[in-house]
Structure prediction request, 82 residues.
Amino acid sequence: MQNSALQKQVASGASAQDRVIEAAVRQFMRTIDHAARRELEKHIRKAIADGRVKPGDSLTTGMGVTSRALDLDVTVYGKIEL
Prediction:
């Protein structure tokens, strides 16, 4: 029976450890998604109120992820179309 369960895991392409990693990263991403969204919205509203940006503007924006333990420093860029 254990061999059958192992074969299913191998066939599915994801080990138990892979699923744990995916779940942990997914939870982290949910947390930063909400926090980053709130901050972006707050700063966009302020920039509009200050006249620095206006509806119709396109804002190139980057989001970084860093981890010393993982030797990770990545910034992903995209556009926010107002």
User: Anything to note?
Assistant: The chain has a mean pLDDT of 88. The longest helix spans residues 16-50. The helical segments are 2-12, 16-50. The radius of gyration is 20 Å.
